[in-house]
Amino acid sequence: MADVDTVGTTEEAMVSDATEDAQMSSGDADAFVALSNLLDSITAAPLNRSLHIAHLALCQATPALAAQLSTAQDMYTSLLAVPENVWIPILEEKTAETSIAELDSVAAMHDLFVKAEGDYFSIEILKRHATFLTTVSEITLSEDGISMDGYDEEGIREKLQEIVNRAEGDMSRGSEVWDLWMQWELSRLDKRAGREKQQRVDALHQTFLERIQFPHATNDETFQAYSTFVSTYLPPSVYEETMVQASSARQSALKQWSFRADHEAGLVNGPPAYDAYLSWEKNPKKLVTERVRCLYERAIADAANRRSTEGEAGIAASKWEGLFWVGLIQFIIEHAGDEQLEMSIFSRAIRSVPENGAVWAAYIRALERHGLLEQIPDVYAGALATNLLSASDVVEITLAYGAQLKRLLMGSETPEPDEELFETLSTLLKNAVEKVRSLEGADPRLRLEKFWSSIYVDLQEPSEEIMETARKVWGGAVKQYANSYIAWSLYAQFIWQDLRDPDRARRIYKEAAARNQLDWPEAIFDAWIDFEHRFGTVDEVETAMIRVKQLSEKLAVKRQQEAAAYQAHNAQVMAEQEALHPVEDLSQPAVPMEVEPVPQSQGDATKKRKAEDDGEGHAPKRMRGEELDAQPQSVQAPEASTSASTQPLKRDRENSSVFVSGLSADITEEDLRLLFHDCGDLREVKMSQVSGNYVATVEFMTKDSVPAALTKDKKRINGEEVAVNLAWKSTLFVTNFPEKYDDAAIRELFTPFGTIFDVRWPSKRINTTRRFCYVQYISPNAANDALALNDEELEPERRISVHISDPGRKKQRTDAGADKREVYVAGLARGVKNEELEQLFGAKGRVKEVRLARGPDGLCKGFGFVEFEDEEGAEAALSLNNKEFKKRRLAVTLADARAPTKREPPGTGQGHQAELRNRSVRLRKIPPGTQEAIIQQTLEKLAAVRKVVMKTGTDEAVVECETVADASKLVLAADRVVVNGQPLEVIEEAAAQTARPAAGATSSGMFAPRRAGPKPKAGLGHKGAGGRGGARVSFIAGGAISTTTSNGATAAPVNGSSSTKSQDEFRKMLGGGK
């Protein structure tokens, strides 16, 4: 770390110079005041990066402070690692000032380049460094050149090779540096002759071969340069053989690059793209340690360059940089096993992210692991001196240092502890506890106090004086955290368990139970009663139970008052939101997390399909209260329809659910039901284990129960504190992501911000264009952090939309109601651009978004969607139907998500139902709770799929494919159909239906179908069923055919023949035969 003591002196000089300048320019008085304030702030927190960024910006924006810019740059670069956008102006200015005829000047400039390269990876800096060295060589290597130690030909070659090695990790741009080096080498080669030249030719030949076998973007250009080299410097007789061998040798590199090309192209989108690339590159099957390390370096540099951005983007970049540094450190420790590399990374990391406690703690542990114990005190002091650490960071680094000291203390073979070491450890923890308590948030988990107390208790023979000191630790804790049940519980436990003083413990329980603002009184009540059963007399037990009953009744009244106040406040907030957004009433159910049901048809179809279409496309799971969801929606005539705002909600998951985290492995559903039993009627409790975390969603019958449920936050179940939050506060509504993104890609994108509980997708059985999902974390903080992804450009012209799934902002987080504002456009030219369509349709109304379907080549597939701000714009856009645009006729229609698809495969003469069966497959053994969308995403990797429909009450689903060939692909690839780790059974739908007993089978085994041929359609020349003269064709048991009318009368035999016909003859008749 740089010596921050010199900052004050430098700043005094700057202020003095600025004051002299101020006398010449009184109009810049405000700028000088701002400079003075900034310098005071930097003196107090010299490692605060935002202050240095503001300092540079002020000097650059104020002409009167231009003379101070150099000093500001020197201050910044001496204290912290700075990215290329800071270094490049400095290096360009210094290079222009360097006298390349003077060794000291050249060496100083070279050292400055090396320092800049040590901060962050930068191709631009490496290129400038290489150019500087080649320029120096023109002076030192000319015939009458100036001799300089270290800058002769071998010295410059060695330096250039070091630069090339640094740049090699960038597969996209590393060639820019390699090419500069090779140009210099070839220029030097022409100045040699004889054996010396041949040696250099052989060396460069080997260099070319190594380069074309390394995956990089410009391999073809490198291969062409190699061809020129071979034809120029090697004998013509070996050219063809040499090039054939080289072409074969580079095939592996070309293949490796092809795997990475898309990842590399996507890196322009910033940290999320780097994170996804890293996850892919760290796959154990293809892991190359140096390649991953270089990718981490590039990711860190990219995040560092974005840190200077104002607002949430800069904050997000700062968090990403910290995550990447921690990831690199853990990766190097796990895979590299190189102490020198590990230590160099730590020294760079603490210059880059001195505010990151995880980095400092890992550094301390690394020093202990490598036996460098004497450095730990200075590193710990340096971390605290930054004044940038949060309370949690201070706890983390103190535990790292304290644990090291405790291991030394407990490792002593003498019965008496080392008094000096014991005093050092005690002082360390005492000071750390005081510092943590002075910081925002402090340490509600009391990790330092628990560790501190354990030191006294774990000694072989602790004296009474030592144990009293430990008691004072807890006494101080309950004063600091007076309303924390954790502090009081641990204090009392220490007293009766370690000090063995039940009377004092009883007094502590009584005092804690009587506190009005305790965060979880029930935990203290239970602990007190348990304590009395273990240590008290019968009178003491009775006294405790009476007191607890009195306090519980008082608490119940208080909770009711709090719940009523919360409910009133919530109602007021909702009313204010409705007043601010009066136009956001949507014409579909007001529960966006429920995917829209399939429209109901009339008659029997309504009853048959209703159960399958209700819900969110999950495999069924019967639960309490599920019958409330099973009520069919009534089909109303258009004139009788009502707005969604007046229709009663059948289920309000978002507003009626709370999310519970921090559960222990032994907590059961019954424990949760017991915790919330006094809050209201429960509909469902869903428990899950996510990445080692046990969490649950608790849904009530009505949203009125939620305020009372939120009062259970920070309560304890089986001794473990749980967190209770509104479910929607930890849930994100995510849309406008690339079409290729599936469940795995979304999880990969959002996982860096926290542990994901679930990702929910809409069913595509009706609307195949829906592209949104809900990402639910196990904590609201993670969801808030993930908002940094909002408006990130994941691919060209597509920015992802990420918002908290707030029920009060339905319109901002759902695609509901967009159908009437969106038009479908077909007949587009392949080269059409979003801007061109926006300009064309913008003449008809305000365009909100243009979405084009693009192929792998980035060109339009010929269709897309245009969404307007209002319905009027979409209606007006219909006038563009059949308009000529780019020499093609456009087809413009409303993008009605509920309109039945018109795509049908070529007719086979078998009828629609037969064709549908032939291009469908049936899946079995589907795990409970599986989403339709997840199944469809899995299958789409194997074949073209239209939709997936779960079968209610079973573990089966029917998959409708685009063609019969696609259905065959799925059957043949059955061993690769795995969903949620469960292999599924895949069979042809026709075979599945044949395997089931026929509904109309007779005792003689003859098949008597209820209806032959396709259903009659009312209004198309057919009579309707039921009372409209409809008829049914049936096989008679003897094989004859009869027709039965709707009133029960039997019509004449088919075809007017009085004779009976066999089934074979009937099949011929249906097939067009006689």
From TrEMBL:
Record SMART domains: HAT, RRM
Subcellular localization, as worded in the UniProt entry: Nucleus
GO biological process: mRNA processing; RNA splicing
Domain RRM: 656-729, 730-807, 821-897
Residue numbers spanned by region Disordered: 1-22, 594-655, 997-1027, 1043-1074
GO molecular function, one term: RNA binding
Superkingdom as given in the UniProt entry: Eukaryota
Pfam family, any one: RRM_1
Protein name as annotated: U4/U6 snRNA-associated-splicing factor PRP24
Lineage: Eukaryota, Fungi, Dikarya, Basidiomycota, Agaricomycotina
